[in-house]
Inverse folding.
């Protein structure tokens, strides 16, 4: 909204959608009483008007002292209404194309009298397509509003990881993976604390966090350092950085300020008792046996994400270790570098995608728009003896909610 031209285009598009949807609303409500139609029309334009007002003053609303939860609701309402109308308009456009083709066919292939009747009387809208469009748009709008209530609905995913390379002493090891906390998006510390309690109730031997502790700046964690410091495990808590942790999406007054922000994030993790792995590895011991835990900085195969990760620094020294776990924030790293060059890494743990916080997960069927960008976007993937697990994220970013893809706590059992 900072660009006046873009703002005018967006407002113009919303007004056009408002008019288009209203024209169909008049058709489908034709059989209702005059009073019912009046109430319906007034309610529609009040809602559309409020959305335009929020859009116009969105920068001021974001900078205001309004509670973040209310600001999020206003934002989602405007975005939901826009995309709901856009989806509805697709159905209406299909119907209008049908009407146009029928009108053209009538002019070309019917007699003059019949053609004049079609031209004079017009071709009525399809009531079915009109209702279908309104239902589809209304469902999307309602779903996005409903999804805001799911952002703290943590789900525990239990996954068994089988590998012949796992030393006998490590069989049954319980590993909790967390990813994408995005503390800057939280509005309810008590709800976050309940998520931490869920982790502790699993009694993990090891806790691994695969990046994106914040959205942009280290101070976003100030209300949550104490909450997450409660995460403890007998074999430790280890972490890596995600693309958002570096402060790359902020205009800093100086390079020194950016470095200080990152250092504050590192220091905060150390105070919590987390061991941050920066292109390095540690050897975990149990019953006289060892496995390797490798942690690298963010490495994304997509052009707009940084490649700070250095496997050439993190991997050496693990060659003789029978079982290796790699923590790498971005799952695109697996196909791009891990599998082609490091075929003896048994298990890679990633996050980053959030499952786009929107999708469908049913037995035997999964779908999310993010799958058109990321081949591996949620859950367990296998290639030969190598495994990749992509966590759906503990927090949320952008859209303050979850639809179909719930926030995740992963319990991995090594067998």
């Amino acid at each position: 909204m900072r660009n006046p031209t873009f703002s005018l285009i967006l407002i113009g598009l919303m007004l056009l959608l408002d008019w288009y949807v209203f024209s169909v609303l008049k058709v489908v409500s034709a059989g209702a009483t005059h009073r019912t139609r009046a109430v319906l029309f007034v309610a529609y334009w009040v809602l559309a008007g409020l959305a335009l007002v929020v859009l116009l003053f969105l920068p001021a609303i974001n900078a205001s002292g309004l509670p973040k939860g209310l600001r999020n609701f206003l934002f989602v309402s405007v975005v939901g209404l826009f995309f709901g109308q856009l989806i509805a308009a697709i159905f209406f456009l299909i119907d209008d194309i049908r009407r146009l083709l029928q009108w053209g066919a009538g002019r070309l292939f019917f007699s003059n009298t019949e053609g004049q009747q079609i031209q004079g009387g017009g071709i009525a809208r399809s009531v079915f397509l009109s209702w279908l469009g309104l239902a589809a748009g209304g469902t999307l709008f309602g779903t996005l509003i409903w999804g805001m209530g799911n952002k703290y609905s943590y789900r525990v995913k239990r996954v068994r990881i089988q590998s012949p390379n796992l030393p006998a002493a490590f069989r049954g090891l319980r590993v909790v993976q967390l990813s994408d906390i995005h503390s800057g998006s939280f509005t309810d510390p008590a709800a976050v604390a309940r998520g931490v309690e869920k982790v502790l109730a699993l009694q993990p031997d090891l806790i691994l966090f695969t990046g994106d502790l914040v959205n942009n700046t280290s101070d976003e964690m100030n209300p949550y350092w104490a909450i997450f410091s409660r995460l403890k495990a007998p074999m430790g808590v280890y972490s890596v950085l995600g693309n958002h942790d570096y402060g790359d999406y902020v205009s800093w007054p100086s390079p020194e300020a950016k470095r200080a922000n990152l250092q504050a994030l590192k220091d905060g993790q150390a105070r919590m008792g987390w061991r941050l792995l920066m292109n390095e590895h540690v050897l975990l011991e149990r019953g006289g046996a060892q496995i390797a835990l490798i942690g690298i900085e963010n490495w994304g195969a997509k052009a707009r994400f940084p490649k700070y990760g250095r496997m050439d620094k993190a991997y050496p020294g693990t060659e003789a270790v029978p079982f290796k776990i790699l923590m790498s924030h971005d799952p695109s790293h697996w196909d791009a570098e891990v599998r082609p060059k490091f075929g003896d890494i048994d298990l890679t743990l990633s996050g980053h995608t959030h499952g786009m916080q929107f999708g469908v997960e049913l037995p035997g069927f999964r779908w999310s728009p993010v799958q058109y960008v990321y081949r591996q976007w949620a859950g367990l993937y296998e290639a030969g003896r190598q495994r990749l697990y992509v966590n759906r994220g503990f927090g949320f970013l952008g859209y303050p909610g979850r639809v179909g893809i719930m926030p995740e706590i992963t319990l991995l059992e090594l067998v």
Summary: The two ends are 52 Å apart (CA to CA). Residues 113-121 have pLDDT under 50 and may be disordered. The chain has two domains: 4-107+123-148, 155-414. The chain has eleven helices and 14 strands.
